[in-house]
Design brief:
Elements lengths: L1 H38 L3 H11 L10 H13 L3 H23 L23 H17 L3 H40 L3 H5 L2 H10 L15 H14 L2 H14 L4 H14 L8 E8 L4 E8 L13 E8 L9 E5 L2 E4 L1 E5 H52 L14 E8 L5 E5 L6 E4 L6 E7 L7 E6 L1
Helix pairs in contact: 1-2, 1-12, 2-3, 3-4, 4-5, 5-6, 5-9, 6-9, 9-10, 10-11
């Protein structure tokens, strides 16, 4: 009877192992399939794949990443209404997850430690929320809906102002959850979390984490600058000047932002400026992806009587830019180039670095709980029980690799006088030229997207 009971337990453990492994593998395949379509400029197809993965329930908690990716892909397929529908859904889901975090009710605090973070609902990042509102604002602006664009830019700016407070509250809840777990199990997990030997092993495995060039307090210079540019053309010149001053403070070498700040100040002081300009914004490349690396921990750090002890952690892998710049040709002898404006890589690195201590702590806590379970399985069920539990721990030790990959690597910008003949040619280096006809009497925003070298150039021309 005991052997039969043990066999059932081993069967259930093995089944759970198989399910966890299949779920993680399926998730990675879905991410790779989307990225392949998106990086080749097949935006509508990429969006359709994400919509197909969504739950039948509107704004279901598990659909956040699908909505983010679909919203971005629809945007560059020039289906702006569908794009904002997806971003509206993403914002509603993000709000739900943020409320759960602030109330300390997230299931990932305690209940997930026996599996892995990848099997939880993707709950989003601070920069996710900022870019949702930024892209919604851009969509409305490009549709000529200044009222809703203004609302969304204000929401994006408000998210940036509240980001530091939001993050501090989230970390406080994580610490409370750890204290509850220690009290519940009667085990001093913090002792192992603070083990310098473990910290040394992890630093060796991810040696460039401390070299990330971070932006301060979750601020995205692109959002701040773009909002300033919008308010400049919306007639809110004082607000535009304040935002452009803030953006210039973060990017003091950016001559376009400096020029726009001076321009906004003049308008705020009542100056009438009839000169017309074209602002070119270039979304270059794709955001980082995450890769998994495993750290096998010396068993004596936890207990000697187990088959496997280790953790899996995510590592950011930066992707190559599509092109170093774009050439803007007005006449055969007059060529300008786009210049660096802001790095989405750095925005993502900033938050990732701040989150990393908790990511490591959760992974270690999970390893300790599973190692303890492995030890007791071996004691109660014999060597085979210990082996199966060890395999279970190995299979459920996986890093969460989900990330909003459709974001760009960086933003570039150029500002030129609107050509008197209305003719503008733009191209990546050594690539065919895109010819655009403009009115010499208008201001314009030309927004360009290229996710990968040799991918098609997608653009939207907006009269200002």
């Amino acid at each position: 009877m005991i052997r039969r009971k043990q066999s059932i337990q081993l069967f259930l453990l093995s089944l759970s192992l198989l399910l966890h492994g299949c779920a993680s593998m399926r998730q990675r395949e879905q991410l790779e399939a989307f990225n392949k379509l998106y990086s080749h400029g097949l935006y509508e197809q990429a969006a359709t794949t994400q919509v197909a993965l969504q739950s039948s329930q509107t704004a279901a908690p598990e659909d956040l990443l699908y909505s983010l990716e679909a919203g971005t892909a629809f945007r560059y397929a020039h289906q702006l209404k569908q794009s904002n529908t997806q971003f509206d859904q993403a914002e509603a889901i993000l709000k739900y997850h943020n409320q759960q975090k602030q109330l300390g009710k997230t299931v990932d605090s305690i209940g997930s430690i026996l599996v892995n973070d990848a099997l939880l609902d993707y709950s989003g990042t601070i920069y996710d929320g900022i870019m949702i509102n930024t892209y919604k604002a851009l969509n409305f602006w490009q549709q000529g809906d200044y009222q809703n664009a203004r609302v969304e830019f204000n929401r994006a700016l408000d998210r940036q102002r509240r980001a530091k407070e939001h993050f501090s509250k989230e970390i406080s809840n994580h610490k409370q959850a750890l204290a509850q777990k220690q009290a519940q199990d009667g085990i001093n997990y913090q002792k192992n979390l603070n083990n310098p030997r473990i910290a040394q092993i992890i630093r060796k495995s991810y040696s460039n984490l401390d070299k990330f060039a971070a932006y301060p307090d979750f601020i995205n210079p692109f959002t701040t600058y773009l909002a300033g540019l919008f308010f400049l053309h919306d007639g809110s010149h004082n607000k535009a000047a304040d935002l452009l001053k803030e953006a210039y403070g973060m990017t003091p070498k950016q001559s376009v932002i400096k020029d726009d700040f001076i321009y906004a100040q003049k308008r705020a002081n009542g100056a009438q400026i009839d000169h017309k300009y074209v602002w070119i914004i270039f979304e270059n490349g794709m955001a980082p992806i995450k890769q998994e690396f495993r750290v096998d921990l010396p068993i004596f750090l936890l207990t000697r009587h187990v088959s496997y002890t280790g953790i899996a952690l995510p590592k950011l892998r930066l992707q190559a830019p599509a092109y170093p710049y774009l050439n803007i040709e007005l006449k055969p002898n007059k060529v300008y180039q786009t210049q660096f404006l802001a790095s989405m890589d750095r925005v993502i690195q900033t938050e990732f670095k701040k989150q990393y201590p908790w990511i490591v702590s959760r992974a270690l806590l999970s390893a300790m709980v599973k190692t303890t379970a492995q030890y007791y399985a071996q004691q109660q069920l014999g060597p085979w029980g210990g082996i199966i539990a060890g395999l279970m721990q190995l299979a459920t030790t996986a890093a969460d690799l989900r990330i909003w990959s459709a974001l760009p690597k960086e933003f570039q910008i150029a500002k030129i006088s609107t050509p008197k003949d209305g003719k503008l040619n733009i191209s990546p280096p050594n690539q065919p030229k895109l010819s655009i006809q403009l009115s010499p009497h208008k201001n314009y925003l030309l927004y360009i997207k290229i996710p990968m070298t040799n991918a098609p150039m997608t653009y939207k021309l907006l009269p200002l």
